[in-house]
Design goal:
Helix content is 38%, strand content 11%. It contains 15 helices and 11 strands.
């Protein structure tokens, strides 16, 4: 059952005046998980989706006019780092090797098992691995060990936002995320990221699954038991772009401690029309703009916040952006809370700020109610398309295990 008219949840699509905007995920990583799902169903992913490897993965901007292109070609990335801080370039490979090691451990522990199998994860054979990736250090402290440049530390601190956390509070365990992007690759889906839920819906229906839309769950019966588009183009932009704030620590303090939008936030801009011309009218571009923000609060005027973001992008060189906007729609945490019933409008559910955060996410099976299972970005193992697919896999395995157990009685 799906609460809204279309499937996909927060991975959704907005179409207006010839523009298309992905209003949720804008980047596909861990493509192999999606491919494994189609293979399991005895289908070819190529028959459902066309994916394009992105180069560069993302373009980063700072207020002193420094620009950095991140690439899966590690030699290119090292060269880019060397332009900023030569000493950091030599440490990048060590940093990525550590990230790869952490990912490989997570792949066979947290990403392979539901938290309902916690006792299995705590088996002695996993002890060494879990100790190796657990850390009392924050992600920021970890990154300082490898990079002298404040710019490079800021760049790799940004990966904490991939699960809605602060790099100054989340443990260094999450230093595994850079390998997901630099080591495993980053893709765009032709036609827009919403093609993924459409493809999954098509596959499910082919396999005989009944899907009901406009069908919100009102009660579980228990017995016993920001978007914008322009009339012009900005050649300095890549597909993915990050415009950094000057004070990253102040930004996260505002969000997580003062519970208000930062006065000078980091701005993410996705221009999918750079890769896929069908996403905007000819000679135009679709700018999907996203900022780090706190959960819902009646104190925030989101129109004022949106206007300030446009001004900041103009200061970064996107001249006459405000005058060029042909279509604009602002999507706020309140919208996420209302439309998707997310907790306080959060995208990723509980943040990972704390050393035990990985164990505190809701497990895939209810501990209190039998036959109740949880799937999605707010449950284990986390948010983002690949991890949501893994949560579905874990829940299905738990259900299958239960059914097989009952059949043996």
């Amino acid at each position: 059952m799906e609460k809204n008219e279309t499937v996909g949840g927060k991975v959704n699509l907005l179409e207006a005046d010839g523009y298309k905007f992905d209003t949720g995920a804008s980047l596909l990583t861990m493509r192999h998980i999606l491919e494994e799902l189609f293979t399991f169903a005895e289908r070819r992913i190529e028959d459902y989706l066309e994916t394009v490897s992105l180069e560069p993965i993302c373009r980063y901007f700072w207020t002193d006019s420094t620009i950095f292109d991140a690439s899966t070609d590690l030699q290119k990335t090292e060269t880019e780092i060397e332009k900023i801080e030569p000493g950091d370039a030599k440490n990048f490979q060590r940093f990525l090797n550590d990230s790869r090691h952490k990912y490989r451990i997570a792949e066979k522990t947290f990403l392979a098992h539901s938290l309902n199998d916690l006792l299995r994860l705590l088996h002695p054979k996993f002890f060494r691995d879990l100790i190796a990736i657990s850390s009392l250090k924050t992600l920021d402290a970890h990154n300082k060990k490898y990079f002298q440049s404040t710019k490079m530390r800021q760049l790799f601190n940004r990966f904490a936002t991939y699960n809605g956390s602060s790099p100054f509070e989340t443990p260094a365990t999450f230093a595994l995320i850079p390998f997901v992007e630099f080591g495993l690759g980053a893709w765009y889906v032709k036609g827009g990221m919403y093609e993924i839920p459409k493809a999954l819906e098509k596959l499910a229906r082919e396999l005989g699954t009944e899907i009901k839309t406009n069908c919100a769950v009102e009660k579980i019966l228990i017995e016993r038991g920001k978007a914008a588009g322009v009339k012009k183009q900005f050649p300095q932009l890549a597909h993915h772009n990050i415009f950094f704030s000057d004070d990253y620590k102040a930004e996260f303090d505002a969000i997580f401690k003062q519970l208000r939008p930062a006065a000078n936030p980091t701005v993410y801009v996705c221009v999918s029309s750079r890769t896929d011309k069908t996403q905007s009218p000819k000679e135009c571009e679709n700018l999907f703009v996203l900022i780090n923000a706190p959960y819902t609060s009646s104190k925030t005027n989101w129109q004022i916040e949106a206007d300030s973001i446009v001004k900041k992008l103009e200061d970064f060189g996107l001249e006459n952006l405000e005058k060029s906007i042909e279509f604009e729609q602002i999507i706020t945490p309140e919208d996420f809370e209302k439309k998707y019933a997310t907790n306080k409008g959060s995208i990723y559910g509980v943040s990972s700020n704390g050393i035990f955060s990985a164990f505190l996410r809701p497990p895939n099976q209810s501990k209190d109610v039998k036959n109740l299972y949880f799937v999605g970005g707010a449950t284990h193992p986390g948010g983002g398309i690949p991890l949501v697919l893994l949560s579905g896999k874990m829940a299905s395995e738990l259900i299958s295990k239960k059914v097989k157990g009952e059949s043996k009685r």
